[in-house]
Amino acid sequence: MAKMTKSQILAGLAESSGLSKKDVVTLMDKLVELAYVEVKKSGEFVVPGIGKLVKVNRKARQGRNPATGATIQIPAKTVVKFRVAKAAKEAVM
Asked: What's the pTM?
């Protein structure tokens, strides 16, 4: 199964919505920009029916170097995760 490229997604959205491809590109760029700003500000961004981006703080922990087996300290950090909506899981599975 080949995955869709960005241009294929944009062309498909333009065709199905009746908007021009340029309008769809602008809309998608603004949606992505809004998602980044909201996750940074409030910690989450919901795309209804698909899922949500969530900012998560990971604690510092002990880890192992796989090559030497030595114990190392992994520092705390903030990561972004995507949680898939229940409706999307049910539609795909």
From this structure: 0.77
